[in-house]
Amino acid sequence: MTTLETPRLLSRPWTEADIEPFFALCSDPEVMHYFGGPHSREKVEATVRGAMEAQAQFGVWLQPLILKETGEFIGMAGIADVRFEEHFTPAVEIGWRLARRHWGQGYITEIGKAFIDHAFTVRKFGELVSFAVQDNERSIAVMKRLGFTHDPADDFDHKRVPDELPHLKRHVLYRLKNPAAA
Ligand SMILES: CC(C)(COP(=O)(O)OP(=O)(O)OC[C@H]1O[C@@H](n2cnc3c(N)ncnc32)[C@H](O)[C@@H]1OP(=O)(O)O)[C@@H](O)C(=O)NCCC(=O)NCCS
């Protein structure tokens, strides 16, 4: 299991105590806009339990983000093996979700760099991908800040987005190669 530390942040494995603040975050319509709106308590609990299992198998996952200064749970970020089939899988993705009041302070860029370093130097993955709904500009801005690049030929319609949400189907895919990979 993996814990990463940066000057301002800690990312560590999930605990039961994270369910409550994660539910609060997943109740914010602005944060959850690109996930089809707020998630129920049951769905959030299932997400956390799934993440606990996945992190035990994979060693790291999309995991809690803690502000060191206060100990506050402020979101989640991490790397995960993509668990659906697409033209770019198998692949390892990097992803993030941050409480609204903490946007605009560079926290995701800061922890993103730490996860990229972990992915490339410790886990030695050859490439990371990141994907988002095509108009999720804040998420795409993080990808660009972290050095990910985009080829429109990679874009795809996400199979797991329900047909009732057609405006959330089209996704852009960004990639970052491990500079140490051949
Ligand atoms: C996507 C999301 C995580 C991005 O959060 P964010 O705060 O914009 O991203 P960062 O933490 O990298 O912060 C970047 C901002 O902080 C500013 N900043 C301040 N200090 C900074 C620093 N030291 N380093 C980098 N940026 C810094 C940047 O200028 C930028 O500001 P801007 O918003 O005016 O452009 C957030 O919008 C979110 O949670 N969205 C909802 C969930 C979601 O859609 N997740 C992605 C699904 S694919």
Task: Provide an overview of this structure.
By secondary structure, the protein is α+β, with helices and mostly antiparallel strands. It is 27% helix and 26% strand. Strand 3 and strand 4 (72-81) form a beta hairpin. It has helices at residues 19-25, 41-58, 107-122, 137-145, and strands at 4-5, 9-11, 62-67, 72-81, 92-98, 127-133, 149-150, 156-157, 170-177. The protein contains 4 helices and 9 strands. The model has no long low-confidence stretch (mean pLDDT 97). The protein is globular and about 40 Å long. The strands form 2 sheets. It has a 5-stranded antiparallel beta sheet with strand order 1-2-3-4-5, sandwiched between helices. Strands 6, 7, 8 and 9 form a 4-stranded antiparallel beta sheet that branches. It has a single domain, classed as Gcn5-related N-acetyltransferase (GNAT) (Aminopeptidase, 3-Layer(aba) Sandwich).
- Proportion of residues in β-strands: 25-35%
Number of domains: 1
SS element count, helices: 4
In sequence order, what are the helices and strands, one letter per element?
EEHHEEEHEHEEE
Number of strands: 9
Cofactors and ligands: coenzyme A
How do the strands line up in the largest sheet? 1-2-3-4-5
CA distance, first residue to last residue: 28 Å
Radius of gyration: 16 Å
Shape: globular
Helicity range:
25-40%
Give the tags.
182 residues, alpha+beta, Aminopeptidase, five-stranded antiparallel beta sheet, four-stranded antiparallel beta sheet, 4 helices, globular, binds coenzyme A, RimJ/RimL family protein N-acetyltransferase, Acyl_CoA_acyltransferase
